[in-house]
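Teaching assistant here, posting this on the class forum so everyone can see the example we discussed in section. The complex has two components, and the goal was to see what a joint structure prediction looks like when all of them are supplied at once.
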Amino acid sequence: MKKARKEKANKRLSIVFCSMVYLFLFLPIFVVIANSFNATTSKPYLSWKGFTFDWYIKLWSNSALLGSFGNTIFIAVASTVLSTIIGTLGAVGIYRYKFKGKGIINGLLYIPVVIPEIVIGIALLTIFSNTNIPRGMLTLILSHVSFSVPYVIFNVRARLSGYDKSIEEASMDLGANRVVTFFEITLPVLAPGIAGGALLAFTLSIDDVIISYFVNGQTKTYPLKVMESIKSGVSPDVNALSTLVLIGTIGLVFLTQSGIGSGKHKKI
Amino acid sequence: MAKRISNHEFKSNTMPAIVTVGPVAILSLFLVVAPLALVAIMSFCQTDEFYNVVYKFTAINYSKLLSPDYIKIYGQSLLIALITTVLCVLIGYPFAYVIARTKSHKKKLFYMLVIIPFWTNSLIRIYGWRTFLGSSGWLNMLLLNLGLVDEPVEFLYKTGTTVLGMVYCFIPFMVLPLYTAIEKLDGSLLEASSDLGAKPYKTLFEVIIPLTSGGIFSGCIMVFIPCLGYFFVSNILGGGNTDMIGNLIERQFKSANNWPLGAALSIILILVTLILVKIYQNLGGDMDSLGV
């Protein structure tokens, strides 16, 4: 009897505690959403002046903001495609073949993962500036590829470790060459790992602030546009766009109901 | 004949290895090794009067690193990162424990709810905190209306505010590895411990925590190290009063234009990272669990 009551109290305590953590996680998002309906028009757009949908209409005429969002999507798609191809090939090659320097390549993969982003950012800035590569879209894509590839490799590798090589041998015994075997046998088996890696690469690219901040030149991505406006106050149309993006992503995930959260290597 | 040669090449494994690993190798060489090597070289260089980097050896940047102003900021950075990490463990552990061991069918939803906030850009969310905490912010509005305070309280621009922002940014990096570790925990061990008469706290400290220590270690690495470089959190919430090493580096590259000095500061950050990762490995940490 006493034990049951104690367990009940414990359960209540853990519900209260977890709710508080969730509140902490979601509070700034509620603020962002609420402020997208804020009727205030004076900088820094902080005090509440009543409810309006105006910012959702004004958003569509803010070409700088929409342009930066377009850049973000373009860079994310391009860097995801490139890093998924490079990472998948790399994971298969590193797993399968013996070659000199394998240990070195393996070790190098961890560098972008553990070293603080700011160091990667200034290092890329330095190399681009020393080799006279004009900073902009190209350097943004290259940089995003460089920090995404390790995550793709880790995801694909997790899939490879449970992979039965004999089905490839069977394929080749039956007359398929290596290229056909790769596309018909290897790729389909690795598909979930590749998809997980690609999703991660896309997410990392879209949210990246620090590395982009150093290599962007004149090209503005959406996070950089936000950073630029922080000094004078972020105008509520930025919040409106964030709100739409959030609703869009949640909708997409619940529609597809993909196995998010089941993979080992998921970073946010 | 030609076909035969190419077949032969295929069998030798050289071509496939080059095709598959080549791109990663080139990428690592040009976008990881070369940039970091250049930063190391640049940290021993000077600038001319036009702020251009002159490649002539000097150790002056490293001697500048020892100025008392900088040392104060290193101390402050390490302290903020340490408090952030400790708070992330203290809040993240019980939280991860509850959601990882719940028998509720909503378990997957609970997990997703940790991730969903991170689909909104981190800058915007940190700015959301500023909106909430500012002197004309919503928390103050609430406190004033409730009559709890007579004039707005300044919550911003304090060490505590920066720590709050950092904990906010990094707590999922603690919760997710902990969740994985705790979920793997075999429930029968906990039952055995309590059947054998162990008090709950004893089960916690002698069974649960040792078995999930891998998750704690990797969580700590994934919070502490990036925290040192997150300059925008201290910019937005600390307002220049709570600079981290990251802020010093950012300034050298973006406004002060002393790249060699910024490079030397970055080398410090790299060394701190290497030392911590080495400690992590010696404690039996798995490098792969850092790539979560």
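For the discussion questions: The longest strand of chain B covers residues 46-47. Strands of chain B lie at 46-47, 53-54. Think about how each of these relates to the inputs above.
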